[in-house]
Amino acid sequence: MHLAETTWTDAEKDADVALLPVGSTEQHGPHAPLGTDTLAAEAVAARGADAYDGEAVVAPAVPVGVSEEHRHFAGTLWVSPDTFRAYVRETVESLAHHGWDRVVVVNGHGGNVDALREVAARLTRDGVAYTAPFTWFDAVDTDLGMGHAGPMETSLLLATRPELVREGRLEEAAAGGAARWGEWEAGVNLAYDSAEFSGNGVVGDPREASEQQGAALLDAAGEGLAALMGVVVDREWEQKGE
Amino acid sequence: MHLAETTWTDAEKDADVALLPVGSTEQHGPHAPLGTDTLAAEAVAARGADAYDGEAVVAPAVPVGVSEEHRHFAGTLWVSPDTFRAYVRETVESLAHHGWDRVVVVNGHGGNVDALREVAARLTRDGVAYTAPFTWFDAVDTDLGMGHAGPMETSLLLATRPELVREGRLEEAAAGGAARWGEWEAGVNLAYDSAEFSGNGVVGDPREASEQQGAALLDAAGEGLAALMGVVVDREWEQKGE
Amino acid sequence: MHLAETTWTDAEKDADVALLPVGSTEQHGPHAPLGTDTLAAEAVAARGADAYDGEAVVAPAVPVGVSEEHRHFAGTLWVSPDTFRAYVRETVESLAHHGWDRVVVVNGHGGNVDALREVAARLTRDGVAYTAPFTWFDAVDTDLGMGHAGPMETSLLLATRPELVREGRLEEAAAGGAARWGEWEAGVNLAYDSAEFSGNGVVGDPREASEQQGAALLDAAGEGLAALMGVVVDREWEQKGE
Amino acid sequence: MHLAETTWTDAEKDADVALLPVGSTEQHGPHAPLGTDTLAAEAVAARGADAYDGEAVVAPAVPVGVSEEHRHFAGTLWVSPDTFRAYVRETVESLAHHGWDRVVVVNGHGGNVDALREVAARLTRDGVAYTAPFTWFDAVDTDLGMGHAGPMETSLLLATRPELVREGRLEEAAAGGAARWGEWEAGVNLAYDSAEFSGNGVVGDPREASEQQGAALLDAAGEGLAALMGVVVDREWEQKGE
Amino acid sequence: MHLAETTWTDAEKDADVALLPVGSTEQHGPHAPLGTDTLAAEAVAARGADAYDGEAVVAPAVPVGVSEEHRHFAGTLWVSPDTFRAYVRETVESLAHHGWDRVVVVNGHGGNVDALREVAARLTRDGVAYTAPFTWFDAVDTDLGMGHAGPMETSLLLATRPELVREGRLEEAAAGGAARWGEWEAGVNLAYDSAEFSGNGVVGDPREASEQQGAALLDAAGEGLAALMGVVVDREWEQKGE
Amino acid sequence: MHLAETTWTDAEKDADVALLPVGSTEQHGPHAPLGTDTLAAEAVAARGADAYDGEAVVAPAVPVGVSEEHRHFAGTLWVSPDTFRAYVRETVESLAHHGWDRVVVVNGHGGNVDALREVAARLTRDGVAYTAPFTWFDAVDTDLGMGHAGPMETSLLLATRPELVREGRLEEAAAGGAARWGEWEAGVNLAYDSAEFSGNGVVGDPREASEQQGAALLDAAGEGLAALMGVVVDREWEQKGE
Predict the structure, then answer these.
(1) Of all residues in chain D, what percent carry a pLDDT higher than 90?
(2) Does A86 reach chain F within 8 Å, measured CB to CB?
(3) For F21-38, how does the pLDDT look when each residue is reduced to its tens digit (9 = 90+)?
(4) Which of B30, B34, B39 minimises the CB distance to A3?
(5) Is D43 in a helix, a strand, or coil?
(6) Do E75 and F3 touch (CB under 8 A)?
(7) How many whole angstroms separate alpha carbon A202 and alpha carbon F210?
(8) Percent of chain D scored above 70 by pLDDT?
(9) What is the pLDDT averaged over residues E73-100?
């Protein structure tokens, strides 16, 4: 049940878990759209809701996240971690207000991970909603590299929104990108911005992507999400009165 | 140019104004979807961008706004005015970071109006971006009543997303709704929540809606928006250095 | 019962509603004092308390409000909407602490309206006090124009504090002012500051003002306020335990 | 020059220092009004402005301060220290915006002292305005005790607003009050609220008050303030550009 | 029982009061270390815990406080009063979470006093913990002057950490210091920074210090603290449920 | 150069990098002290400063961090991530104020990692200081397991503060602990608190610890830190004017 398309009278029926897709609007190289992470979060959330054995509410996706590290590339939008946490928190609070107090945040962007973990802990400990932050590319087992706008993300796009992948630019994307996420020393990543190490924003080789692999990733992520939804619903935890 | 579907390399070309659609996810009676305001904001923004004589950037829509007044109806989502202002502000700051310092916020929800006026004033005075908050139903001249989920909004949906209007429920919507927005005394509205005066959340009679009138509203709103975009671009105002 | 002049022992007697006057210190042209809005709020609150059939507590006036739009004119003072809301909220919280949980904010400044609506909603929904934001010039029915330092405000001053109106400057005030509140396009006011459209800060023609009309405005506003106080006291609503 | 009564055109003339009176609305026993501290701040500010050899701007008084310690007594109003500091800070910022960057805060309430010192330091170090927090009863040399609603405050009222002193209740005030401000141990005051140690809120014996002594206190405080204004104006310090 | 060196299993035994030492890292002239205030707070807290007739928990010291006034001297560290209050407040909240709801903050720095009084009042009134802010040099009766890095502080160091006093620089310290804490007018200290009146940061003559006097100060402060702990434990006050 | 023990006059000499140790006060099973993480951070910082080929400033350790997940065990202290970030940020700002604009935060607690990454990015992007968050156990290559109060931490304590390890309780520690950090599903850790999966707070088997291994860990961590310090000092980056 996608909230945006449902009436309130239909939303009243029982659902035992809510999904909140969270993406970002940020550079994904010359070949993939700025909305890649939001599209991925929405696609995985829809797939997870289908695969789940029960009724799930799907909220509209949060479209702008913690993406300041890509700000040197045109069109990248971002909010501060504080504002992002507040926006996610209050959206989950309103879901919980309607009794949907088991929530999985379905995330498509690495830069959101730390902030989501923090806000999900807060919501859970405060007794608002038991909230689990799921990131699709951390839930799948694959030989494909993640990188940024790399094989995994490009594959997922090819399987879900192929018209948005500029295939004629894949060579250029690979040539102008970086092999890894910047310089490391003693376990510390020294770069704070992707422009420090990647000329066109890409990390990894998107030419390794394929629609077939994308379909497999979507299946795996959707199944992982559905399994998580089941565990979240069964988790011992109680909402505190408002 | 819709940012979500564009690559950063294509986003680099000149655009002289940016549009930020802002909606909400909130009850719109038994006949219209919770996403009505977001859908309206997106549709009007797209129409305005088409009608505008120049290049415009369209950001992804902010999907949850200041809608606490509808919280008694299932599925309504909301954030506080503070968080809403912060989210809008920082999104506009990132648009301005890329040089798009003329911004029209294209709004679809009455409850957002005050907060948008406040944050747009702040952004403009701070020298971030000259920001104008446009609300589509305040820009059109019509005999249709606004209400809530009433003739105007229902018409716009019929013209843009007719499959989302539950036409079989229009009688019920009209019968269970209210004629006006609560009780007033000495210029003061005494109600803080729509459930105080409307049984099903509707205000006004959605049976007066039609696709034809919706098309006319969309045209008028789009033209109004395009005219505003022109004035905003020509306005004397200068961005301050970061 | 004006709190500032009352002892705590006398303040203990029953009152069923509290008034909080809220003004501003901002330019009102060459002929009217910077304190115009505060003086108006105090005068209307006093008149309303007299007209009210019951006992009312009148708090001291909040003297500085949301007036940044007049900052180009000497002597204008302002605070941010956030600070204004916090100051009003906490003052109302302390009124409610003493059991005065029906509060009318009596406002004299247009720039305060949105912020007051927001904070009054919050106080009411939080169960602190049922709080209604009353703005005197929105409560009266008159042919006089509002503008800024125009016929209505100048009339009210002539009826309450005539010595503060510089009548010898009325010609100059009218000549250097503006006919309306800046430029509009598609329902959007493009100006954020009064200096953008008025050379001396005046909007409207203060020469149309008269003491007689001011007396009528004061009567009408006081009666409207008293009527509102009655409705506020009777409103179904309950304070939540601290 | 009292801002509230001045026009902006008259406020433009040169003044070299601004005064911001700061009071509170809080219990002052059965004999003195809740507005005692605000009245004192206003009276001393007016006297200081008169005594000062130069032009001074006097802002309207901040009427509600840090008075939570008196909340057990009816009519006491208070805001948090954070909100109080913000309100004072932003009011001083707007004074400084007009070039009045030498500011003396003229305080009438002991509970405001710490918060004023903090905000004045911030304003000064930030280059907004050189700001000095003056508290009238710390500026005079007298044998009268301060207490609360005691000899000093009652004397000042008798000299400035005698009609507000309920002289018939002085015996009761003295009998029901406390000799000192609660219990101390190792330099620490153990009480956080005046109700812990005073039955009627009074500390000290207001029967020792007299109009004559009040007049002397007013003279002394006004002269001290005028001397401070001179030093503040001469202080080496520079405003930073906005 | 010093928390830092205790296991949680041993921390479970009954203690009826907790001590939170609070210091600062700031210049103390050429002869005394930047950590002087933290060292003093720790030494006095340990002595007080020993002298106290009961079990006390001693938390680790907060090492950086409100010391911006010394920022012109190398190595001085500081946080804002807001952040300092938040850090102290939340640390006390966690002490109270374990049932230690009688807390004495043992302070070694004058610049922390106002902020500690504010946060201790808040914690006490909110029902978190009855919290008393103790400042060691306000608790002792001595003829030695306080100043800054003066006789009292230098004596305490000589009695507790003599190796950290650069005795060879005492002449220089005295010669380059100030006799008192800046200029005063009408009860107002005009200086916001120690560099305005002291060339090397010292106030007072540290040559008057001695180990013997330091030992006496430590005894007196420890006894004062122990007495306060007793009063704090016996104070009528109740924690509110979380 | 440890700031706490240095005078400001000695702190003035050139240092090209500053270290800020950050620990926590939280349960470490029945055998290790609550201060384990702070002690580790201090020991590693000291070792790194020694190993570094240049002059380093070492600030006093932040003793309480983001440890709410251990709150079910007595003596655990914690602050919110917001307050922790503010405290670290402002301490680094004051280091940078003195010209030490290359800072390594030396961290001993896993729960601090996300918050430190966020604040270090902010400080670096804002031009305050190039700030790198180093966590000692992520910098060493070892076969020992990390867990919590497990082999690595216990070894480090045995090598640095052996008297604080209760060796007689190692059997009990191992028996009552957990093998791993709670339940995982689809890449998501379902536990928010250590008490959900460990009876005595231990994760891993501390009996595998030894002083020898601790000495090796300390060497490796110190060398890693020193290497990082070199890279941080050489990093191309510029402080922005205050």
Answers:
(1) 97
(2) no
(3) 999 999 999 999 999 999
(4) B34
(5) helix
(6) yes
(7) 45
(8) 100
(9) 98
Q: Is A173 exposed, middle or buried (0-12, 13-18, 19+ CB in 10 A)?
A: buried
**F90 interfacial to chain E (CB closer than 8 Å):** yes
Q: Which of D16, D87, D19 is nearest to D55 (CA)?
A: D16
**A–C contact (≥3 CB pairs within 8 Å)?**
no
Residue of F nearest to A122 (CA): F192
Closest CA to A17 of A125, A118, A105: A105
ipTM of the complex: 0.98
Query: Which residues of chain B make contact with C68, given a CB cutoff of 8 A?
Result: 121, 125
Q: Do E31 and E88 meet the contact criterion of CB atoms below 8 Å apart?
A: no
- Partner-chain contact F90 E73, CB within 8 Å: no
Query: pLDDT for C136-176, tens place per residue?
Result: 999 999 999 899 999 999 999 999 999 999 999 999 999 99
Nearest residue in B to C196, CA atom:
B236
Query: What is the number of H-type helices and E-type strands within chain F?
Result: 7, 6
Across the range E186-205, mean pLDDT stands at: 97
3-state secondary structure of A111: helix
Condensed to tens digits (0 to 9), the pLDDT of residues F105-130 reads 999 999 999 999 999 999 999 999 99
**What is the residue-wise DSSP string for chain B?**
-BGGGS-HHHHTS--SEEEEEE-----BTTTB-TTHHHHHHHHHHHHHHHHSSS-EEEPPPB---S-GGGTTSTT-----HHHHHHHHHHHHHHHHHTT--EEEEEE--GGGHHHHHHHHHHHHHTTS-EEEEEEGGGS---SS--TBTSHHHHHHHHHH-GGGS-GGGHHHHHHHSBSSSS-EETTEE--SSGGGT-SSS-BS-GGG--HHHHHHHHHHHHHHHHHHHHHHHHS---PPP-
Number of neighbouring beta carbons within 10 Å of residue C53: 8
Is the pTM higher than 0.95? The answer reads yes
At C24 the pLDDT is 98
Q: Which two tokens stand for residue E37?
A: 């205030």
Q: Shortest Cα distance from D191 to chain E (angstroms)? A: 9
The 3-state DSSP composition of chain D as helix, strand, coil percent (nearest 5) reads: 50, 15, 40
Q: What is the pLDDT of residues F209-226, one digit of tens each?
A: 999 999 999 999 999 999
Supply the pLDDT for residue C241.
79
Q: In what order do the strands lie in the sheet with D17-22?
A: D56-58, D17-22, D102-107, D130-135
Which tokens is E240 given?
Answer: 């509110």
**How many Å apart are CA A36 and CA C133, to the nearest integer?**
45
Please provide the distance, in angstroms rounded to a whole number, between the alpha carbons at the two ends of chain A. Answer: 26
